[in-house]
Amino acid sequence: MAVTDAAISAIKEMIVVGELRPGQRLPPEKELGERLGVSRNSLREAVKSLELIRVLDVRRGDGTYVTSLRPELLLEAMSFVVDLHQDASVLEIFAVRRILEPAAAELTVAIIEDAELDALAAEIEGFGEDASVEELVAHDLAFHHRITAAGGNEYLTSLLDALSSSTARARLWRGITQDRVVTRTLAEHAAIVAALRSRDRELVRAALTVHIGGIETWLRSAVEQDPQTR
Fold it and tell me: Per-residue pLDDT tens for 112-147?
C-alpha cells in the first residue's frame, strides 16, 4: 500500500504542476511505471483508486485520461460517503449546511437576476399541496441548488449539493411523520425568495438559517427519541 500511495501522490503531483492537464492522456503503463519506479500492479492499483474518486478515467482499449476535474465530478465521492451516515451523524452535516448555505445565499443577493427570482416564485406557487414527499424533496434540492449556483462559486455549489444529497432520507422521514410539511416548506421557500428580492443580505441569511434550522431541530428531536439512530 505504501508503494501504491506513493504512485498516487506522484500522479497527483503531475496534475498539480500542470504536467498532466484535464482531458490529457497518461503515458503508457510501462513508461509511467518505470518513471515512477513502481511495478505495474502498484500502478494499476493507484490508477484504480484515482478512477474511483473521478480524477482519472480509464477507457478500455484507449488508455487512461485525466478527467475534467470539475468540482461536481470530484465531489461525487464525497456525496457517496455522506449518504452512508446514520441519522445521528447527519446532524453534524446539517450543522455544516447551517453555516455554509446562508453564506452562499448572501453571495447571490447582488447578482441573482429578477428573472431567476420570478422563476423560483412561480415554481413555488405552482407546487400543489397534494404533492408527494418525493416531489417535495426533489423541489427542495433543486430550489437550494439554484440559489447557491446563482452565486457563481462552483466549488461551493458542488460542496453543498454533496452535503444536501444526504438529507433526502431525513426529509422523507420528516414528510412521513409530520403534518403540513408541504405548506411549511413552501412558505419558508417563499420567504427566502422575498428576502433575495429585497437585496437584504441579513434578511437572506436569517431566512435560510430558519429554514435549515427547522429541519435540523426536527431531526435532532427524532434522533433523541430513537436511541438506535445514535
Answer: 999 999 999 999 998 877 777 778 888 888 999 999
Radius of gyration of the chain (CA): 22
Give residue-wise pLDDT tens across range 167-200.
Answer: 666 666 666 666 677 788 899 999 999 999 999 9
3-state secondary structure of 199: coil
Helix (H, G, I), strand (E, B), or coil: what is residue 127? Answer: coil
pTM over 0.85, yes/no: no
| Residues 138 and 91 sit within 8 Å (Cβ to Cβ) | no
Beta-carbon-side half-sphere exposure of residue 23 (alpha carbons within 13 Å): 2
DSSP per residue over 19-39, as a string? Answer: SS-TTPBPPPHHHHHHHHT--
CA 107, 109, 113, 115 torsion-angle sign: positive
